[in-house]
Amino acid sequence: MDQTLLIAGLIACVSLLYATAGQAGGTAFLAVMTFAAFTEAEMRPTALFLNVVAAGYATWRLHRSGLIDRQMLWQVTIPSMGSAFVGGLFILGGRVYFTMTGLLLVAAAALMVLRRQTDVSRTATINALPAAMVGAGAGLISGLTGVGGGVFLTPVLIALGWATPRGAAGISAPFILCNSALGFVGVLLAGQRLTTSVVPYAIGALGGAAIGTSIGLRWMTQNATRYILAAILLFAGVRMMLR
Prior knowledge:
Blueprint: H1 2-20, H2 26-35, H3 40-65, H4 70-89, H5 94-114, H6 128-145, H7 150-159, H8 165-189, H9 198-218, H10 223-241
Helix pairs in contact: 1-2, 1-9, 2-3, 2-10, 3-8, 3-9, 4-6, 4-8, 5-10, 6-8, 7-8
């Protein structure tokens, strides 16, 4: 029970940190579960479920604040939901899963550091096909690994000039919510199941998301958060690849 509470506390902490930057925390949830030596069969469905909890709360808050760009959201999210579901149906072998997910954690760490911080005006025109390809790619990653996809989508939107950092953060949570929900359904159909201690973990994810979203909406101070998360993700990614 003590270990369960410790893991729930760690999940709450990373959920809070991620929520300040407009993310649900799927990569960090996987990182925590890697430290706790979860099996790959438990990690993916549990991470997706926690994504739904954290991103669901953040989406509600963003909707109430009128910060969601619905046109852009649906351009990238509708194509992503089908690919997230398909990705969830595939079960990767232990070595392949740990290597692939570890590489994604390292990539997420790099993207956290390289993300542009300044609020620039959106200048590029958003064409339907490129938007669909970006969304579908992030959705597939979400279903295959248990990562919500927002940590990859957000820097891509900014790099392509499709959104400002605030605008990208505003669609990240609902994007993660939709992909994680469809990916979770696919994972259950594939035969993988949640860890038995998921309730305290979900409470931790929800509590962290509530506090972190409030901080993000009021101050949006993301610099220190990004670097701390990058260090955690890098360490966890390397550890996962060496498992």
